[in-house]
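dumping the sequnces here before i forget
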Amino acid sequence: MNFVIPDFAPAIPEMVLLALTSFILVADTFWAKRSQFATYYATQIALVVVAVLILMSFSTTQIITFDGSFVRDSFADILKLFVLVISIGIFVFSKEYLLQHKFFSGEFFVLGLFGVLGMFVMISSYNFITLYLGLEIMSLSMYAMVAMRKDSGAAVEAGMKYFVLGALATGMLLYGFSMIYGATGEIGFAQVSEVISSGNADGVVLAFGVVFIVIGLAFKLGAVPFHMWMPDVYQGAPTAVTLYLGTAPKIAGFAIVYRLLAEALPGLVEEWQSLIIMLSILSMVLGSIAAIVQDNLKRMLAYSGIGHIGFLLLGVIAATPDGYSASMFYVIVYAITGLAGFGMIVALSRTGNEFDRVVDFKGLNARNPWLAVMMLIVMFSMAGIPPFIGFWAKIIVIEEVIKAGFTWIAVVAVITAVISAYYYLRVVKAMYFDEPEDNTKIEPVSGSLNWTVSFVALSLLVLGLMPSSLINLCYQSINSLAL
Amino acid sequence: MLSSLPILSTLIWLPIIGGLLVLFAGRNNPTVAKWLSLLTVVATFLLSIPLVTGFDTTTASMQFVEQVAWVPMFNIHYHLGVDGLSMPLVLLTTFTQVLVIASAWDVIKERVEQYMGAFLIMGGIMVGVFVALDSILFYIFWEALLIPMFIVIGKWGGPRRVYATLKFFLYTFFGSVFMLVSFLYMYHESGSFSILDFHGMQLGMTAQILIFLAFFLAFAVKIPMFPVHTWLPDAHVEAPTAGSVVLAAIMLKMGGYGFVRLSLPVTPDASMTLDWLMIGLSLIAIVYIGIVALVQNDMKKLVAYSSISHMGFVTLGLFLVYDILQNTGSIQGAQLGMEGAMVQMISHGFISGAMFLAIGVLYDRMHTREISAYSGVVNKMPWFVMFAVIFAMANVGLPGTSGFVGEFMVILSAFKANLWYGTLAALTLVIGAAYTLWMVKRVFFGQITNENVEKLTDLNKREFAIMATLAIVIIALGVFPAPLMEVMHASVENLLVQATTSKL
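..and the predicted 3d for all of it:
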């Protein structure tokens, strides 16, 4: 039997990340005694190093290695870079939050890094096994993070729920994979796609496989009707963890949707398209209506996140390279906006006070006008109101779904956008029009937090005024794959 | 030097940047905020004058054009320009802005910098709406305006301000998103977002009807037309004076502008097929809403309803065109209606602005707008009442004021279209006179019955200057409207051609 040494070069960022993470894991036990923040800084440095590595070896062509199980292309590189940038932001916010809430520990950062590694593997997966591996690396880290706060009943309960339902979703996904494998005899995305298009596979088994895969994906993304875990987990988890759950993993989630549906199963588009339409519409409608009654901001953002997933799927419905590009743009914008939104909650929370209820934001304009403006930008961007970047994200996915001939879906989408505007406005109303419960001036816990949250929020405005380069980046990266 | 300056961009960005500066520089320092704001709006107004002096009245094509690629991927451009339809509206905006800032001078005490900043930013955005020639750019300005207005009504408004401002935001947002979907659909069909390209594109009847209805939702809510007008009285009553002025004088015009810039030229066949709907709703607005205005106890509410009624003339004048051409074949008749509608927009901008400012003057002194709380104000405030009566007369449509010109033109053309249309439209002269004069009688004249009225003081210099400026403009436009019509003439002619050329 010949053993061919695979080309390791494309996976260097992952390997470096794994090595650094393992090193930090071990070193943390020594560092923790001497310097509290050593692990934190090491984590940030690791992320920057990996980002630099990716930038230096930025791939313009598609490279497949490890016997067809791992792919490196510009799509993957761009998404990974955004995962890194968002993660850096997440850790900046988390550091302060963990300190404030007195459970600062190295595990959080190490688990976070492993999660990022999982996302990387998901983004670069090119067969079912790699994808499963990446998904589990990420999910296991996140289950642990949600339940990390042992003294909080809500967090432990959320961790339990997340774990059980996440495991169920993984089961569904695996079941779907096995059916596709059974029908095609292949696990590589390219080979599966080839066999399906040749028409030699059993259509019924394939159709069942697709249904299970889509259900599994919907669970992971939190699309209705498989969304039940999201509000509970978002609310129950410590805000720093919610921040993590609600941002970077969405990017990886989109990546696997793309890899599975567009690269492995394009031949079954008729089967999955109608499923995605259903998921998308249900998510938009339920996400926007259920969020109205939420008094907890984290819970509200969870429902709003469900609605955003519905919007994200609009581009997937189109099932064209342009459609996927629009979704890619949407998910990046959503991750940045989510970072700003949850970041704001972190920035304002104090020991023993989470600052995550809508009433907490009452009179914020009187207490800190600058942060009120930042939060206003975040809310209006989420609502898709110009000139913020969220507007462009919505208009592009809607344009793609119209181009695909589904104008009626576009109409449903804009109606849900109007409904959802109501609950974003509720936050603005609380900040600007309601009297604060106490009039003390409120500042972020630290100056760096103030800068970070302002930077992220203002980037929503700046990107909104100059959206062109980010849009181009997304369209080019996917179109280069399609050619 | 001025000729090389991109005037339209300056008119948009100068107030916006000025507004941001006010937000920062004026924090904890109201005096700086006020003077910086005044400086900005005056500079903006002065810079808008070259639009008039450099305007070529012989052409209907776009002037002062600026075009830069913005999002090349989707063929979206930063594309600005004005013609005879939009230029007067731009000027109305920059002029009103000066009055708005002046009117709030001593009245706003709390967070002056946010208030002034919001109005400056609104000013830039409103100019943007009138000059944008790319539909996405147009939409962005159109929607972005909601944000500062939302804050202004919600923060400085009356007791039910939160309800009113949410209603305002959601109504107008709901209307506009369908416009966005039509833009996207037309982009998909034509490959361009340019409004001028939309004018030239062929569209099937079904598509036209759907697009017309989508536009209708957006513009009818904004103007507002019966039955989607209910947000307006709420918003007006709760808004601070300057907010009402901007709402009535400029924001309502955005709806009318939408009809002339998009509905008529882009969907002419649908406009023709559905003109009965537009005419019907316009006549309901003129007559029924006029009667509703009669029974109001709150002065602002009364003027708000009167605004809806008067804006009915705008839509009536625009959509009468098809009936006139069918019945008489008179192109002049059709043009008369359209031009009347345009003049009515400008004139209503000044008159409604003036009415709200006058009510604001009373409100600042007495903190009530109940008609019954006043009586015999003339004894204490003769100068004020003089101006207020001029404005009221203009609102009634008395010859010699600007209110007469537009309404008269529309009524004349309504008679050309159909005797009943003319009769119903002319009813406004009776109803309008009834509610306006009755209010004038109850508020300004008669015996003083309330001791608070006894303590009233007449206009101060600032208020006098504002009122006098408006009175001069209103009378000048009434006596000599020719220059305004000359500016519009070529563009209205062109609009008529566009509105009557089938695209099927």
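The longest strand of chain B covers residues 63-71.
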